[in-house]
Amino acid sequence: MRSIIAMLWFGAVSSGMAWALLAAEAPSSDSQQGFVPLFNGKDLSGWQRVNVHPDTFQVRERKLITTGNPIGFLRTEKQYENFILEMEWMHVNKDQVGNSGLFVWADGLPAVGSPFTRGIEVQVLVNFEADWATSHGDVFSVSGAFCKPDRPHPKGYQRCLPSERRAKGGGEWNHYKIIANNGTIKLHVNGKEVSGVSECRPRKGYLALESEGAECHFRNLRIQELPSTHPQPQEIAFVADGYQQLFSGLDLVGWDTPQGAWKPVGGNLKSDGSAPLTTAVPLTLQEFLFDFKLPPKSSDAVAFAFGPSGKPTLLGRLAGDKMHLEAHGKKFAEPRGKWKPGAWQRLTVRELPREKKIQFLLDGQLLHEFDAASPLEPGMLRIEPANGLEIRNLYALGRTK
Question: Is the pLDDT of residue 4 over 70?
């Protein structure tokens, strides 16, 4: 009997060793199923910080961790259309609310005046329940995106509440599987589909992890891309290749201003009206943009300059009753202002080298276009002070060769 048992034991061990050897030589399950890692477990290769501090997203023990501060997002370097994505997440907060999320089909830059991007958010949340939201896998549109929830929301929101409560609380790992195809998103929480939306716009864009006030850990992010369903240009999120973040949301690194003249407050830079804010080094660029807001009853103007120190090439001043713009010594003035007191707006100044033009835009609408015989020289960006002026989402686009 003992000899038979010994033979059976040896056979089992030999068989196990053979299977182990085969498994070691076989390709990984990821490659067998068409999945590739979204996060390599070592660094942030393939990802780009958009409006957060360098320390906001960190890699520790093969986990991608957000501190939650400041509010903002980290996005992929490339856009995705149709795919299956799997990931695990865990909030550290066991009692307090922990908030984060995954943006799908997102723009490459934040929405005007917002720390968030336009896209479809898959909620990553714990310790919060209301009649309009849950901590179990809500899916909803953000910042002007569109989606149709699989079930009507009780308040009519573009938000799908889950069919079951399957998510675990703070301190425990959860598994998400997201199937995104032809404008439709289905979310599986810990092994079962619970939420979904359709008719999404955009339906191609970046993937982004959200920082929103709480420490959250992510691991085992992988993706399998599916065949294209050929979205139209208006169904594709804004491409933001080459944009350089000029403000971290937390400090004044990269800027010169007297102490206290401008302060980081809630992800914004706020002026006390006493001194300008100037980049610490010259920028070589063909576009810059920033969002601004003045108090509702302010009579001040939003003013800026760009160019070599003491010799600005570009000037702009937007007030409630008039607008003044300059480029290469040419001037344009208009008696009516386009500034909206109390509202966030986005100012963009863009060089078109081939057309030899300089454009000034407000909220995407052309204010004026100048002829420009020569390209912009490297220079400093200066934003003039105004009492209560708030600035956020500052970016520069370098000149392409």
Answer: no
